[in-house]
Amino acid sequence: MEHPWTWDQDPPLRWLLVDEYTGDTGAALGVCAGIDGLFAEPEPPPEPERFTLVGCDPAGPLREALQAASAPSGDVQARAWLPAVMLDPVHSDPVPGGCQRYDVGCSCMEELFDVEVLGHRPSIAGDGLVDAELRGRLRILPEMHWPPAHPPEARGFLLHGQGNEPLGSCRSTIGVFHDRPFPVEQPVTLVGCRPEEPLLTLMRRRSARNRHLQATVHAVDAAGRAARTYKVLSAVVIGSAPSRLDAGLLDITLHGGFDEPFPDGAREIYDLWYAGRPSRRNLWAGYDRGLRHEWAGAALFHRPHQPDRPPGLTYDLDGRFVTDIEGFYCAVGEAVNGPGGYFGWNLDAFDDCLRGGWGAARPFRLVWHHAEVARDHLVPGYDRPPYDLRSWGPAVTMDDLLGMFARAGVTVQLR
To answer: pLDDT tens, 250-269?
Structure first.
């Protein structure tokens, strides 16, 4: 994506805002040298909480986990864990106002995840029922709704696990519904901004509710090419002043921000891409898992549109630094598409790339050098990527990847 602005100025204008949701969709709102709030230190993961499922009639994996939790052997204690427990309220008629029913569950549903099953005791709620003690975290999605302080109007809850497998039911809960502090909203400032007419129009409006913008952020490189990052800015314009960087530009203050800003360490990655596509392999190798994920994302956002190379070719994967699944995505991207190349940044995206359209036409051959590194690190278990608590689940193993290659008709030679 290119725009007719002059980029060779000081300070360089690094970030383009494009209206994707309101007003003139696709219109440029402005370019700026920086965005305070686009990069931030990640929030620490929430501390585990204690929950009780009162009057619980457990089924399936929950019943098995309760049995494992009460067994004396330390071995089976490891099985007393569940990736998720969905609490689906059983409403009385009429259904509470604002409740929306889905195929499974409703909008009043809550989810516990990373659940350690601690034990159970007989419940006074009924014969044969138990009070199940759990420790875990409540899924909080601010973009959807904030968890209520009081339980919904319901006769009880149906319990479902990851994949909607039945886990039984319970009459009520303790510890799930209570007041929780809202996160502190981080201020956002467009620093050194050259606004375009749509943004100037917003700034001239008197009413704050009419000064709301919702835009995607595009990273602009030194050649003026803009790459959409899929970071969404949702905010209200509350003020502006001549920029501290250049009096001919503006510093525009906003109320609101990003649901998920970049981690602060990703600045270095986008500084590198600003200068142009990386020219050496493995520049990502020194990053932790979170920043390796950001590297693969930057490779995706900056990916040039080009046809697949013909089938039958051989690609070499440098496996020395494949110590996690994010390292694999970085390495396979560079194996297929060269330094800074992209070939997936999660399992679904990798599967899409194997189908063609992302640099390599099938069938092809992949020589995986130093494969023993991945064999030692990509092992069975459960995984929670540090950049996304929502993705807790079974770990992606080397055997999983080799199976995907095989199903796609790709021959892999391990060295």
So the answer is: 999 999 888 789 999 999 99
Phi and psi angles of residue 407, each rounded to the nearest 5 degrees, phi first: -65, -25
DSSP 238-298: EEEEE-SS-TTSEEEEEEEEESSPEETTHHHHHHHHHH-S--STTTTTTS-HHHHHHHHHH
* Separation CA 251–CA 34 (nearest Å): 10
Q: What is the mean pLDDT of the chain?
A: 90
Q: Is 141 left (phi over 0), alpha (psi -120 to 50) or beta?
A: beta
Give the chain's end-to-end CA distance (angstroms, integer).
Answer: 41
The confidence band for 360, taking pLDDT boundaries of 50, 70 and 90, is very high
**Domains within the chain, CATH numbers bracketed:** 15-42+184-263 (no CATH), 49-174 (no CATH), 277-414 (3.30.370.10)
C-alpha 66/C-alpha 134 separation (Å) is 10
With both helix axes pointing from N to C terminus, report the angle between 347-354 and 398-407 in degrees, rounded to the nearest 10.
Answer: 30
Dist. CA 96–CA 148, nearest whole Å: 14
Tokens encoding 197:
């007419």
- Count of CB atoms situated within 10 Å of the CB of 165: 13
User: Could you tell me which of 302, 303, 268, 300 has the C-alpha nearest to residue 287?
Assistant: 268
DSSP output for 202-235:
HHH-SSGGGSEEEEEEEEE-TTSBEEEEEEEEEE
Residue 171 CA to residue 309 CA, distance in Å, equals: 59
- Please give the radius of gyration of the chain, using alpha carbons only, rounded to the nearest integer: 25
4 band by pLDDT with thresholds 50, 70 and 90: very low
- Paired with 28 in beta bridges are 18
Contact 314, 365 (CB under 8 A): yes
- Output the pTM of the full model: 0.81
Render pLDDT for 121-178 as a digit per residue (tens, 0 to 9): 999 998 999 999 999 999 887 655 678 899 999 999 999 998 889 999 999 999 999 9
Over pLDDT 70: what percentage of the chain?
Answer: 92
Give me 106's structure tokens: 């409703």
The confidence band for 391, taking pLDDT boundaries of 50, 70 and 90, is: low
Is residue 319 within 8 A of residue 371, CB to CB? The reply is yes
